[in-house]
Input
Amino acid sequence: MKYIVLVFTLLFSACSIKNYEHTHSKILIIKSPKIKFADLGYVRNSSKSIELELFVAGQSIEKITINHLICVREGCMSKGGFNTDYLHPSYPAELLQNILLGQSIYEGKNRVKSNEGFEQYIKDEEVDILYKVSSDTVYFKDKKNKILFKIKDTK
Output
């Protein structure tokens, strides 16, 4: 019986309400096979969790929460499962949270420092990625899989 309680606690705590230390409004463009979005959003994060809330005409249309799982309106799934369903199965598990936080992807592979931040070019048989991070913009484009994230600070 105590194992059942433990399992339910772990499952339901993944999508529970979080207290975030940082909240930033962003202009977002997201194009993937399952998500098409271009409008205002909020990126909230703490040391343990990240939340992306998407708005259209002032109405919240989607909330994506990332901790040890990724939770969307339909439910929670592993990070790899999210990549398979929403992005591309070859992507590393931490890709979405690294993009939202403007951190290196693919463990810093091919990272080149620029005047404003850094750039990464990653090309192999499964991806063709250009990833740029500057002080106010994060740009991720995978030409091979037709996936785009553009995240720009509002001023």
In short: The radius of gyration is 16 Å. The CA atoms of residues 38 and 109 lie 29 Å apart. DSSP finds three helices and eleven strands in the chain. The first strand starts at residue 22 and ends at 31.
